[in-house]
From TrEMBL:
Pfam families, per database record: zf-MIZ
Any GO MF annotation of the entry: SUMO ligase activity
Compositionally biased residues, Polar residues: 97-110
Transmembrane segments: none
Biased composition (Low complexity): 176-191
Chain segments carrying region Disordered: 92-111, 143-211
Residue span, SP-RING-type domain: 425-472
Domain of life: Eukaryota
PANTHER family reported in the protein's UniProt record: TONALLI, ISOFORM E (PTHR10782:SF4), ZINC FINGER MIZ DOMAIN-CONTAINING PROTEIN (PTHR10782)
Protein name from the UniProt record: MIZ/SP-RING zinc finger
GO cellular component: chromatin
Keywords (A to Z) from UniProt: Metal-binding, Zinc, Zinc-finger
Organism: Trypanosoma brucei equiperdum
Biological process per Gene Ontology, one example term: protein sumoylation
Length: 530
């Protein structure tokens, strides 16, 4: 055994961190039974009571020096790593024999908001650059893991609500004493026990948990969460909703502005966000009905918009769900995009939005509450951002007209070329109605066309912008109008229902139309029924 019993060591674990441990005594036969390469047994300070075999000659083991003057620069950094700070505190407390002050909020160099911004920057760069940035932060003792960010945020919220909790505690104790005296008076007057008066709680009280001292029911509170800062809103405007490379909102919405946003970390929260009246001057005739306020879900990882909302599910006979309330009115969130198995890699999805325009009209500020039902221990149900976005709704007719006009202005890019001697049905396969504006995506492998308005409404309803027939991407920029077929349909509208199919021909020649055959029915016998 190269290290004597009781020696303090640094051991590099699977998470990449160096954790403090101490050498423990164990029988040699037991150690060899675990593997011939092991020569030492250790106990970690962050996992007391459990022994682990160790190969002391590996590169992931180094001696821990308690004296500051004996440490080199690399070892000194290990004492300042946030992830292992609690374990280091236990080590120093055990070795010195005197309690060591645990890390406080003041020892945290950055706030949760600053660490989230660091995390978003790391997620936005290449993997190699991200690794360099994370190593630099670790050397400075900054841990930007999502778990640590949540821990720092909880500490900040706890500090902010300390005065509020103490005030509420005094009020509840007074109410309990009053309830007790009233209950004793009522019991002397009537044999039927009177239900105890409820203690005064804020309207943010949500979760109900049984237990506590004396069987008292403890109610978890919906904490107040500050909205994100202006810097984060600028990132959302420029990199998410204003980024032409991101297909976040349905093309039927034109993005105008980001009103506000709040970070969700798996806990019930309440916040206050501005409405359009707070950031825009309302015209005398009021805001246009086409101007809408939407709630948009984004994941915490690179502000991804394709994950959607938390969908409700059953767990241990409990319903787990995320509920939204705007000004105390429940918001109905739409379903997330549904993609068949095997199509996820090619699916072009927009985010499912919740329209809250009517709930916030006439007010400069509105309250948003996010409530999780049936919380699961040690599990984050939903983590991300809920963003209030100001948009203008574009009608399907206007978007369809824009696509057709775009085709007319650039026929060389829009016309389907090189497709001859193939049969095209004059009926839309989605609606089974005669085609009016026949289209298909530029990447479609079939020549059968779809009705333009039908496919726009289908994609907007499902938030999946792919061809319903072959799953080629079908965003407005990739939709190609079959101009020759459209021209023929416009001039033969009264006879379209008599067409069996149309044969494409080379440019300059008329389309070949195959008409349906009208075969008369043959009636063999007629019987009269009385």
């Amino acid at each position: 055994m190269p290290y004597p019993l009781g020696s303090s060591l640094w051991v590099k674990c699977d998470d990449g961190e160096w954790w403090p441990a101490t050498v423990r005594e164990v029988e040699t036969e037991l150690l060899l039974s675990m593997g011939s390469e092991y020569d030492t047994c250790i106990e970690f300070y962050h996992d007391p009571g459990n022994f682990y075999p160790l190969d002391s000659t590996s590169g992931g083991v180094r001696l821990l020096h308690l004296a500051v003057e004996e440490r080199d620069k690399d070892e000194q950094r290990l004492f300042n790593v946030s992830a292992t700070k609690e374990a280091v505190r236990r080590l120093l407390e055990e070795r010195s024999g005197t309690p060591t002050a645990s890390p406080t909020e003041d020892s945290q160099p950055y706030s949760a908001a600053e660490m989230r911004y660091m995390r978003s920057l790391v997620d936005s760069v290449s993997p190699d650059s991200a690794a360099v940035m994370q190593n630099s932060l670790k050397q400075e003792g900054v841990n930007i893991s999502r778990r640590n960010i949540r821990r720092v945020a909880r500490k900040e919220r706890s500090s902010k609500s300390k005065v509020s909790r103490s005030r509420t505690s005094v009020e509840e104790r007074s109410t309990v004493r009053l309830t007790s005296s009233l209950g004793s008076t009522q019991s002397s007057k009537s044999t039927n026990p009177t239900p105890p008066l409820s203690c005064g709680r804020s309207s943010s009280s949500w979760r109900r948990r049984s237990g506590g001292r004396g069987g008292v029911e403890v109610y978890g509170e919906c904490v107040f969460q500050e909205a994100v800062d202006a810097a984060t809103l600028d990132v959302l405007r420029a990199e998410v909703f204003g980024n032409p490379d991101r297909f976040v909102l349905s093309p039927l919405y034109r993005f105008l502005d980001v009103l506000g946003a709040v970070s969700i970390e798996g806990e019930s929260i309440e916040t206050t966000l501005p409405s359009p009246a707070a950031v825009n001057e309302e015209p005398p005739q009021g805001f246009s009905p086409s101007r809408r306020v939407l709630l948009v879900p984004l994941s915490s990882s690179s502000y991804n918009h394709t994950d959607g909302w938390l969908e409700s599910f059953e767990f241990e006979n409990k319903r787990i769900a995320m509920e939204l309330f705007v000004n105390s009115l429940k918001v109905v969130t739409p379903p997330n995009p549904s993609v068949p198995s095997g199509r996820e890699s090619v699916a072009v999805k927009t985010t499912p939005v919740a329209d809250i325009t009517e709930m916030v009209s006439g007010k400069e500020l509105f309250s948003l509450r996010v409530h999780f039902t049936g919380l699961m221990e040690d599990a984050t149900l939903w983590e991300g951002y809920i963003v209030a976005v100001y948009v203008e709704r574009t009608g399907v007719d206007l978007l369809a007209e824009r696509i057709v006009s775009n085709y007319h202005s650039s026929p060389a890019q829009r016309e389907v070329e090189g497709v001859v001697d193939v049969q095209v049905r004059a009926v839309c396969p989605i609606t089974a109605l005669p085609l009016s504006v026949p289209v298909r995506a530029c990447g479609c492998e079939h020549v059968q066309c779809i009705e333009l308005q039908a496919v726009l409404m289908h994609c907007d309803r499902t938030n999946v912008w792919n061809c319903p027939l072959c799953w080629a991407p079908m965003t407005p920029e990739t939709i190609a109008v079959n101009y020759r077929l459209k021209e023929w349909l416009d001039s033969n509208r009264s006879r379209v229902n008599k067409v069996d199919f149309i044969v494409e021909t080379p440019p300059g020649r008329n389309l070949n139309v195959v008409w349906r055959k009208n075969e008369p029915r043959k009636i063999d016998n007629i019987e009269t029924l009385e």
